[in-house]
Amino acid sequence: DQQVKQNSPSLSVQEGRISILNCDYTNSMFDYFLWYKKYPAEGPTFLISISSIKDKNEDGRFTVFLNKSAKHLSLHIVPSQPGDSAVYFCAVSSGTYKYIFGTGTRLKVLA
Amino acid sequence: DAGVIQSPRHEVTEMGQEVTLRCKPISGHDYLFWYRQTMMRGLELLIYFNNNVPIDDSGMPEDRFSAKMPNASFSTLKIQPSEPRDSAVYFCASTTGTMSGTQYFGPGTRLTVL
Of the candidates B33, B93, B107, which has its C-beta nearest A42's C-beta? Predict the structure, then answer.
């Protein structure tokens, strides 16, 4: 039933190392993919996105990779910093404003 | 800009009571979204509006839930009667009708139904 899955509920990484967050989706019709970050007691904030015509998009320390054949999306954070500790949600859409979000992965970056 | 404003931030009520959550979108944004976040299901879209008109309400869980947008700067999500399983964090988000369509979220309302 879940169209978007984030199979790792939590992840711990040492400061300075790479954080890799994963997301799988089921429908090949999805053509726009996003990552949001959420701190406690705040709303999610947009982090980075990618359209289906690309397989990589980079913004500073954050890179999103899209593997359409595997229906897999990943977010790489290099180097990880303690301020990156948050819950990360992936989201997908198919040409509309209707986003479908995953259940989130809680990232903890250890100093 | 003040961002998306939601009120109240916390709401505790008893089962059977009516609950009304409020949202003020960012000025100039013509899309408004209501989401619910739970541990089990993550962020679920309940309903969204374009130019104050409901476009997709397929995520509204049942008839106890209703949403309105009487004007461009105000929306409500009402639950009547409320049940313990409605306990969650409810977010409102808004965006403009641009290609990127990045949604800007409010801080959320944490609802607890006893």
Answer: B107
